[in-house]
Amino acid sequence: MENLALGTIAAPLGSAILILIVTKWWKRFADIWATVVGGFTLVASILLIGSEPIVYRMGGWAPPWGICLVLDPLSELMLLVINLLGFFVTVYSLSYMEWYTNKPKFFALFLLMMAGMNGVVLTGDMFNLFVFLEIASLASYGLVGFGVEAEELEASFKYLILGSIASTLILFGVAIIYSVTGSVNMADISVFLKGTGNNAAVLFAAVLFLAGFATKAALVPFHAWLPDAHPSAPAPVSAMLSGVLVKALGVYAMARVFYNVIPVDPIFLKVIMVLGVISMLVGGLLAIGQWDIKRMLAYSTISQIGYIFLGLSLGTALGLVGAIFHLLNHSTYKGLLFLCSGSIEKATGSRDMREFGGLSKRMPVTSIATSIGALSISGIPPFAGFWSKLIIIIACFRAGEIVPGIIAVGVAFITISYYVKLQKYTLFGKLPDKLAKVKESPFAMSSAMIILAVLCLALGLGYPLLNSSILSPAANSLLDTTGWGYITNVLGF
Amino acid sequence: MYILCTVLFVIGIYSIIAKRHIVKKIIGMVIIEYSVNLFLILVGYKAGGIAPILAKGQDVAEFASKGVDPLPQALVLTSIVIGLGTLALMAALAIRLYEKYNTFDMSEINRLRG
Q1: ipTM, 2 decimals?
Q2: Does the distance separating the beta carbons of A131 and B82 come in below 8 Å?
């Protein structure tokens, strides 16, 4: 099991380089090998679910001296989220990326990004977290600008500048934490800070972490890069960025740092809550006015990330379960919607909703998948999105946070309204003459969309099973501050 | 020295926000990175420190009291390499942007709105 966990980082990392070398002689190798590696990491992350917490000591050095990888229930869930979407996006890009010239380089960057994200969720070391975060971020800057057209380069440059500042702030925070505690191991830092309490330096470091991770997660005052970067990227990359990257680098890292490393402080939870509520509102309101289909989805991501942070900030078990469940759901349906927008873009050559209409007649698979994704994200009962939003809203009222709860209900209606707009202008209505010849997307793209659509429904119906097997353990591993579960696992005392 | 760190950081932020020229923004980014690297080095600084390698016949107690902390140096090395990667990517993007827009002025590179 230990090696399986390590393999989810090592396999994509090694393959990224291998692909670049081998494709000099054999072009098809990139397609085959990327699918194989994607499949391997998916199988590995499914097998790892429910296993006992694992601590892998790199080079045999025991923590707190060596770097260790920690697999606890939250990491298991995040691994599943990353690799599930990662595999389907790989399958989708097999045919989508034919549009672009250099497929092997795309897969190399893509696998590098996967390796970085898997590393972020597995590592138990603050500096190692920063390193993996930079690997994932640098690969994603490259992927956003992959088309090397004017808009893509511009978006990539903006994203690069903001992302680098965020990374630097995080590194600054790590340095301050190190100067206070003399350690970069998460569990060791936590033990030290529990003994001394939060002094001014730790609070400053916490503010730096907050700003850094909030930029990575695109919470509202820090969101400027997301609506540019996500629509400009190729559709599979948008799906990965919106579906997984902002969660692994932003939400997961924030949750880990503010629950497991730095002792939970009510002030920070309050700040995160306010940021989450603002993100929900602003993201939702801006999404209504968009005509570019991918830009609308990008603003919708900001809004949904707000929900996740609202759930996280409550600090109760129910709120955390809601947040983690919403994270899982959002990665499937937002990934699905971005893939659908990609296949619409590929078929029609446009992203402007005003030019569409009646696509349900010409592209049945895409339109059914889009409908399922839109219904799920706007919270229609049998689908997954309804349950996670319901849990977050109930958790708000249970925790006595009435105003955020009411806003969350209101934003759910806003969400419905802009997805109704998307469906009305894209799928239904009259088919414009120039779109009369559009074709359904190829098999690889359709199959990825169908499976993700089925997952949207299955996650909703399978909630009781999911809750007992993975969501509750994940929430508990964050909350378990009295039993010191995380620390005991890592340090072994 | 900590003040120098802060000053560098602020200069970097200023040049990213206020300067329009892409290359100046890149330089600002690099300055920020180096201010943080400097801070990391300062964390491990020890006046009159010796290299953290235990030589043959060296007194262990003296080594423990005088040897500098090796960890920040390792961290800085890693972060410099990461900074190099970022810089290379930024420079490559700047060149490509110049090819597309024929300008280095960021205020004229504004086709994305919203």
Answers
A1: 0.91
A2: yes
